[in-house]
Amino acid sequence: SAAALRDPRGLHWIVVTGLPEADVMAQIDLNTRTTILLCVAASLAAIWLGMIIARKLASANQRLEAEIAERQRKEHALRESEERFKGAFQYSAIGMALVSLEGQWLQVNAQLCAIVGYSEAELLATTFQSITHPDDLAADMTYVRRLLNGKLDTFTMEKRYIHKDGRIIWVVIAGSLVKNEAGAPLYFVAQIEDIT
Predict the structure, then answer these.
(1) Which of 58, 90, 120, 147 has a CB 3.0–4.6 Å from the CB of 177, allowing a cystine?
(2) How far is CA 154 from the centre of its chain?
(3) pTM for the whole thing?
(4) Listed residue (101, 140, 100, 105) closest to 123, CA to CA
């Protein structure tokens, strides 16, 4: 039912004092159905989104597992290669050394120590220049510069070392330069054979 009201300013108002119950319930039922449909739609959207995310995560996980497996394979191959190099280096019948770009002995094998008469520790504390005969040093350094400038990949030369006991040792040395992936020089590899 509705009643008319008049306020002091002369405006007329209609005040609803009651609504039929069927009208109110129909509106509640419509709101409830709409709410349920929206909830179902939101749930389906969340499930769909979850499935997409799960697929992407599974794909990313597979790529990551493949990358990890490849990295482990490469690390294993690198360890094997290092072990082969270490064995070939240490047990070589000729002298072998890794030498810094400045000439410092970085690693030497037992055969090189036997050729020049110095212990490993003594050689590692010095440079190849310090045991090279002074008359051979200029030619040796020319080869070093040519390796560093990229004009040579390897070189072979006869030269003299000064043995720890002071005698002269004639050797044939084969040298090469090891570079990193970007082509920057890292160190020299020297193979030294006593020809005295």
Answers:
(1) 147
(2) 29
(3) 0.62
(4) 105
